[in-house]
Specification:
By secondary structure, the chain is an all-alpha fold. Helix content is 70%, strand content 0%. The mean pLDDT is 84.
Length: 263
């Protein structure tokens, strides 16, 4: 475990150095957050029908999405992509660590550092001036923190699966873009899942993508009661475990057929 802690620590500190990129990302996400809020405001004003979420809850939901956008598995570790494509992945096989765990820790560190750099300023600005509200109770805050941990672990397992697709393809960009689109739509990042049609909700509730955005954000804004956090967290862990096992199986198959040429 000491080796994996060292990997996470080193990668985390390395990504904390990209402050200029984080500042640019904060500006971009504040802009798109305001655009989304204007769209939802028009939607709520145009209809008097009962809504599954109040307008203040939706505003908070939007700002949470912008603050934690970097945590989603919509991009992966392009350094590992380069290693696989060039054959330098052979050096990875020589490391005295489990290869899947090594790659998982790299992604975990990069997700955490990138999210931290963007989330803190967005929380401050949106909380002071743009309608981001704190959790209604301490229980909601604790439930949100636990669900965010589950979302981070689940997102990293999806990212590793996406990365492993390069073992069977010439370029992983197609799979990456497909996964990004699926995640943005089915996780609730583009549109909160309670606003989806009733027929779609039972399907969305059992898919793993709900645990990335919908569950933690609705626990935060009070749309989901904190008493439901335990079964929801266990669902996140179950999907994470299943995807990790699938990833390990795919990695084993990929490495058995891997051929590295060069000299």
């Amino acid at each position: 475990m000491k080796a994996y802690r060292a990997i996470i620590s080193a990668r985390f500190r390395m990504f904390l150095q990209y402050r200029a990129a984080a500042i640019a990302g904060v500006g971009t996400q504040l802009f798109f957050g305001l655009v989304l809020i204007m769209i939802y405001e028009a939607f709520y004003r145009s209809s008097s029908a009962p809504k599954p979420m109040s307008y203040p809850q939706v505003v908070t939901y939007v700002w949470l999405g912008q603050a934690f956008l970097a945590m989603l598995p919509w991009y992966t570790d392009y350094e590992i992509y380069g290693l696989i494509r060039t054959g330098a992945v052979a050096y990875e096989l020589l490391r005295p660590v489990d290869l899947y765990a090594f790659w998982y820790c790299r992604i975990l560190a990069s997700r955490s550092a990138s999210t931290l750099l963007r989330a803190v300023p967005i929380f401050l600005i949106a909380g002071l001036f743009l309608g981001l509200r704190p959790p209604p109770t301490l229980a909601s805050a604790a439930a949100w923190a636990l669900a965010m941990l589950g979302a981070l672990l689940l997102g990293c397992s999806i990212s590793v699966l996406t990365m492993l697709s390069l073992l069977w393809t010439t370029s992983g960009l197609g799979i990456t873009q497909l996964v990004s689109t699926v995640v943005l739509v089915l996780s609730g990042m583009s549109v909160p899942l309670p606003l989806f049609p009733d027929w779609a909700r039972p399907i969305l509730d059992v898919l793993p993508f709900r645990g990335l955005v919908d569950v933690p954000f609705r626990l935060y804004n009070g749309s989901l009661p904190p008493e439901e956090v335990l079964p929801l967290f266990l669902q996140q862990l179950a999907w994470t475990a299943g995807l990790v096992l699938l990833g390990r199986w795919l990695l084993g198959r990929g490495m058995r057929r891997l051929v590295v040429q060069g000299g």
